[in-house]
Amino acid sequence: MATGDNYRQEEIDRVKTWLEQVVIGLNLCPFAKHPYQRGQVHFVVSLAEDEETLLQDLLYECRDLKHMSPKDRDTTLIIIPEILQEFDDFNNFLDWSDALLYQQGWRGVFQIATFHPDYHFAHTEGHDADNLTNRAPLPILHILREDSVERALELYPDDPETIFRRNIETVRNLTFKQKRELFPYLAFNASEINQDD
Fold this sequence. Notes:
Blueprint: H1 9-24, H2 33-37, E1 41-45, H3 51-66, E2 75-79, H4 87-103, E3 110-115, E4 140-145, H5 146-155, H6 161-172, H7 176-182
Parallel strand pairs: 1-2
Antiparallel strand pairs: 2-4, 3-4
Helix pairs in contact: 3-4
């Protein structure tokens, strides 16, 4: 088993910084702040060097989360430093993770959000600012409890669709200096990014 007791604090610290400064700091996820402040977010580094082992780690973390109270652990971020560094490989792995949820009967129990240093949406070019909403310092599988997501959305005052649109507007309005400060692990070319500074 490559997760659990095996972890590297450096990778966890990098992801926590991203979560604090980008996800929470820019309010890209209005539901992230309170679980994080309450210590309900679990960070684990998978030491998997192949996809089969990573899938086993995902299975372990889902089972672990399922048997814990949401008050103790509401969500888990699996940080992946060794493999899936190419976004296409990472994206292809998601078919395996979806199949795992289906096989275990966890559809409607868990959902998996994804982040990657080279994340890009299908409708974008790689350098488009829109992709920053899902760019993290390392590949991440974020296991979410479906019921927690549903409760959060019920309390959200606006149409949930506005979250995505607002996030796109937020990252598009970042200055070049802000992008370099918030995403130091990305190589920005000023001529490729829409600038307003």
